[in-house]
Amino acid sequence: MIILLGGFLGSGRGRLARALSKRHGFHYYDMNQKKPQYGFFDKKGRLKEKAQRPKSDAARMRMYKNVTADFPRLSKMYPDTIIQASFHRKQSREYLLEEARRYFDKVIFVWIESDGKHAEKNLLRMEKRAKIRSIEQGKRRMKGMRKAFEAFQDTPHSFSFVVSGPKSAEHLWDRIRSASCS
Prior knowledge:
Elements: E1 2-7, H1 13-24, E2 27-29, E3 37-41, E4 47-51, H2 57-68, H3 71-77, E5 81-84, H4 90-103, E6 107-114, H5 116-128, H6 135-148, E7 158-163, H7 168-181
Parallel strand pairs: 1-5, 1-6, 2-5, 6-7
Antiparallel strand pairs: 3-4
Helix pairs in contact: 1-7, 2-4
């Protein structure tokens, strides 16, 4: 089974993906390895590398094609895999889902939502880890993603989930198990 978690910046999809992979033995596939890298100096003057996020649909499709090129091998080595990204654009999301269906027995797509309070806490965490420059920058990116968002259809294997607290990962797992049985 492959689980794809999508959501806006600050939704908590990364934390959920890592929690599910750790608790339930799923391989966590890091899409950042498929993004171009660039170097920068952090606040303490240390050289860091950071993945460059795709800024256009064409760049997103190139990255997703690199990701799906791993699916034949990935499905054999890690038949239970979890991937998280924004997945907010329809064409690239549908392409990824279609390719996943070719190689994995079950494909579950979950759109992660979170209220403003949780999103703010997540953005603060991301700022402390230098994943975003500032909370304000994160909010601007989130606003841009919302503006560019192309909705998906809820189906038995595709649904929305609202982050609601510390037990969210287990509640999500219950929903995923239910969806995978249908």
